[in-house]
Amino acid sequence: MKLFIRNLTIFLFVLLLSSVSFSQSLRTIHEKSFDVNSGELLEIQSDVGDIKIKTWDENTVHIKVFGNRKAEEDVDFHFEKTSKGVLIDADKDGSWNWFSGVKVKYEINVPKTFNLDLRTGGGDVIVLDLIGEIIAKTSGGDIDFENINGEISATTSGGDVKIVKAVGSVRSSTSGGDIDIKSKDGKVSASTSGGDVTLEYYGENFGIDLGTSGGDITVLIPDNLKADLNLKTSGGDIECDLEARVKEVTRSKFIGIMNGGGTDLSCRTSGGDITVRTF
C-alpha cells in the first residue's frame, strides 16, 4: 500500500510538472484577419482548445492562436472566409487524448454585433460584450459569458456555466458542474446532473425551467413577476419567500400562483433544496 501511494504521488507530481511546462511554452502559432460585415457568423470547430472572444469597433475578425510544440505538430488548422462569415476548423492528427500534451488557446476579436457558433472538444469558452446569438459547446471546460444581448445556448460536459448581464433567452446544461445565471427579458432553461443552479432574473417572465439531479436550486425574482409556480424536490426542503396563492404545498412540493399567474416557473431537484426569494 505504501509503495502504491508513493508511486501515485510521483505520477501526480510528474503530471503537474508536465502541465506547467506545456502551459508555459504556449506561443503564437497562427494569426489571421478577415474583413466581415456586422451581424455575420464566426464558426469554430476545434478538437481541443480554450476560446476567448472579445468585441471591438472594427469590421474585422482578428484571430490569434496560441499553442505548444505538440499543437503545431499534431493539429491541422484551417481558416476560411465563407458566405456566412468566418470558419475556423482544427482537427487532430491520429490518436489523441488528454495526456497527449496538446495545448491550444484562441483569442479572437469580432465586431460588437456578431453571431457565434463555438465548439471545442476540450477547453473553456469565454465571451464578453456581444450583441448576437451564441451557441457554445465544450466537452471538458467552463463557460463564462458576460454582457450578452441575444439568445444563448451553452453546453458543457464537464464544467461550470456562468452567464451574467444577459438579455434574451438562455439555455444551459452541464453534466458535472454548477450553473449561475443573471439575466432579463428572456426564457431561461438550465439543467445540471451534478451541481447547483442559481438564477437571478429581471423583467417579464417568458418561462423559467430549472433542474438538477444532485444539488440545490436558488432563484431570485422581482416581486411583481407573474408566474405559475411548480417547485419539487425528492430529497430536500423548499423555502418560498414570496406572496403567492397556494394550490398545493408539502415538504417536497409547492404549487401556486404568483401575481395572478403567468408563464411557468418550474424547479426540480432530486437531491437538494429549493429556495425562491423576491427583491
Summary tags:
279 residues, 13-stranded mixed beta sheet, twelve-stranded mixed beta sheet, 2 helices, 25 strands, elongated
Structural description of this entry:
This protein has 279 residues and is mainly β. The protein has 2 domains: 27-141, no CATH class; 143-279, no CATH class. It has helices at 2-24, 69-74; strands spanning 27-35, 41-46, 50-56, 60-67, 75-81, 85-92, 104-111, 115-120, 125-131, 134-138, 143-149, 152-156, 161-167, 170-174, 179-184, 188-192, 197-202, 208-212, 217-221, 227-233, 238-241, 245-249, 253-258, 263-269, 274-278. The radius of gyration is 22 Å and the shape is elongated.
| Helix share, percent | 10-25%
Unreliable stretches: 1-15, 17-24
Number of strands: 25
* Strand and helix order: HEEEEHEEEEEEEEEEEEEEEEEEEEE
Alpha-beta content class = mainly beta
Task: Write down the overall mean pLDDT.
Answer: 90
- Report the major sheet: 13 strands, mixed
Give the termini separation: 56 Å
Tell me the strand order in the biggest sheet: 5-6-2-8-10-12-14-16-18-24-20-23-22
Compute the CA-based radius of gyration: 22 Å
Q: Helix count, per DSSP?
A: 2
In total, how many domains does the architecture comprise? 2
The portion of residues forming beta strands comes to: over 45%
Shape by Cα distribution: elongated
Could you give the topology of this structure?
Blueprint: H1 2-24, E1 27-35, E2 41-46, E3 50-56, E4 60-67, H2 69-74, E5 75-81, E6 85-92, E7 104-111, E8 115-120, E9 125-131, E10 134-138, E11 143-149, E12 152-156, E13 161-167, E14 170-174, E15 179-184, E16 188-192, E17 197-202, E18 208-212, E19 217-221, E20 227-233, E21 238-241, E22 245-249, E23 253-258, E24 263-269, E25 274-278
Parallel strand pairs: 2-6, 2-8, 3-7, 3-9, 8-10, 9-11, 10-12, 11-13, 12-14, 13-15, 14-16, 15-17, 16-18, 17-19, 18-24, 19-25, 20-24, 21-25
Antiparallel strand pairs: 1-4, 4-7, 5-6, 20-23, 22-23
